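Researcher: Good morning. I'm working through a list of sequences from a screen, and I'd like to move beyond sequence-only analysis. For each chain I'm collecting a predicted structure so we can compare shapes side by side. This is the next one on the list. No need for commentary yet; just the structure.
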Amino acid sequence: MLEQAGFTIESEKPELDYYGSLRTIFVAGEKRVLLEWDGEEGFGYAEVWKNGEWEQLRTNVLESKESEFRKAIETLAEEIKEYI
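Model: Good morning. Structure tokens for this chain:
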């Protein structure tokens, strides 16, 4: 979704840690999206760059039943689409 909207990877944590944590920042012009997954705690979230600072989006993605996990991913994707 982000790459299709013209975003490229600005920075990323290059390797997974023991728990599978990830952190990547995507950029397109003045817009930025940060995606993070905390493998140890079992949750992920997104932040967007607004007015010179990071703003966390409403939806957190938690390790849970597959259907709940997928629903949270879909909701978070919609929030990101509103930003981009």
